Amino acid sequence: MSSLRNLQERFAVAMLDPQSAGSELNIRANGWDGGRRLGIYRNHIVNSFTEALRACYPVVDRLVGGGFFNHTARAYLRAYPSRSGDLREYGSAFAQFLEGFAPAKALAYLPDVARLEWARQLVYHASDTKPLELSALAAIAPEHHAQLRFMLNPAAQLLASPYPLLKIWEVNQADFRGDQAVDLGIGRARLLIIRRGLAIEMQALGSGEYVLLNKLAEGKTLAAAYKQAADLEPEFDLAEALKRHVLRQSLIGFYLR
Amino acid sequence: MKASAYSNGNPIPARAGIGLRYPHYEAVLERLPEIGWFEVHSENYFGAGGPPHHYLEQVRNRYPLSLHGVGLSLGSMDGINIRHLEQLKRLIVRFDPGLISEHLCWSSVGGRYLNDLLPLPYTEEALAHLVGRIAWVQDYLGRQILIENLSSYLEYAQSTMPEWEFLVEVSRRSGCGILLDVNNIYVSAKNHGFDAYAYIARVPGELVHEIHLAGYSVNRFLSHGNGSGEILIDTHSAPVAEEVWRLYRWTVDCIGRKPTLIEWDSELPPLDVLLNEAYRAERMLEADHVLAA
Hints:
The structure holds two protein chains of two kinds.
Chain A: H1 3-16, H2 34-56, H3 58-64, H4 66-79, H5 94-99, H6 110-125, H7 134-138, E1 149-152, E2 156-161, H8 165-171, E3 189-196, E4 199-204, H9 207-217, H10 222-232, H11 238-247, E5 251-255
Antiparallel strand pairs in A: 1-5, 2-3, 3-4
Chain B: E1 16-19, H1 25-31, E2 37-41, H2 51-60, E3 65-68, H3 82-95, E4 99-103, E5 106-109, E6 112-118, H4 124-141, E7 146-148, H5 163-174, E8 177-181, H6 182-192, H7 196-201, E9 208-213, E10 217-221, E11 229-233, H8 242-255, E12 260-262, H9 271-292
Parallel strand pairs in B: 1-2, 1-12, 2-3, 3-4, 4-7, 7-8, 8-9, 9-12
Antiparallel strand pairs in B: 5-6, 10-11
Helix pairs in contact in B: 1-2, 4-5, 8-9
């Protein structure tokens, strides 16, 4: 094995194991031993991963408190090491990790809060798009309408949860003034998280509307998506919902095939 | 291909610039300060769009831009991360940077990233590896890149040459330029007990295309018996230290006027603080110009 590869493998082990003295790395002592010198790197690496995660998940941080978050971040680093030179991608599995993280079991809504925060990250960095012209849609002959398929804005994410996520998010903003108590029984969340221009918006959707967008996002035809929406919400007004989501750029393209 | 054969984007003037961070975007666009150029961290723009691209495009329309990467892991024994390189290439095509830089470091092993700038042993093996990788990356991008010396907190006993020699050889053999970080030389010199002035004196000026300046922090260690004292940490969280300004003035005398960047990443102060640091660097560049004339 190359000595450079060997060095890098040993170095990585020493970064992840606080007990490691790194003696096999052959570091010049020069005042301090190698273990202390490696400790500077180890602290920096663990802190920068922790802060990168905190920057992505400020509401999770507030909900669990800084000390618990630090502990959680270290456990996440062990379970899901970074796979990218782009630190923005580091937190992608945090919700999944929290699902199985026993110390946070009491906060059953925590993984869904993390999903919401990750959805905000995704829409923030997603592609910019042009709006869909209603006139283009109007030019489609009515007999083809049922077979239309729509494209969801790439800067949009749909998220459903049994917990009132929007309320939890709002009361945990730094500038929120008022009662922070949230009644978890107030109902489930069906959210559209979308960036329009530079600003991220989070909208609560009706059950039919949520299913419609979700099925369209999966590539289903308008007829198939509508059927599922109407099954759930018999009064669902397809024309109104479709027009609104085209005008507000939730849907940015369509095609027939 | 020889690096000199590569085209350069919009050139970066031999003036002072500042590292542009997100909290300063609006102030920069509102005030359009008198400053030679801006530099950003490439990876912060690896997303497909959104506010980062929106603001960077407006800044780029008004100022020369340099892209400074932290995640390519050039010194790693892993294969080059093509997805990362492709994302960088997309940025280059879109923003036409005057300079593109990376670090004399490694940060990943076995596909696992430590996302830190980790030191290499200065050996023939590491040199040959790095030279091959840099040449390959330059061909892929169709651009020369600059390689920056690190601040470091350890040295490997197996190193067979000093850092300055390794850095100069990397540049000579691969055709890459050098991004000389004067603060990093100062920090490493203090931490390892070498002479920062002697280091810089041995770097040929024609290989240096950019200089970085930043502030460091001091960590004090208390220990039982052997090994108490202090170690300097390159935190980019403070003004440039006076000793580093002195070293910089001397560097400009030695190697000539080079684009010089003020970097500040954590505990980011108001824009004016960065601008004033840049103006101080610019006065030193101008003083050198007057001397030369």
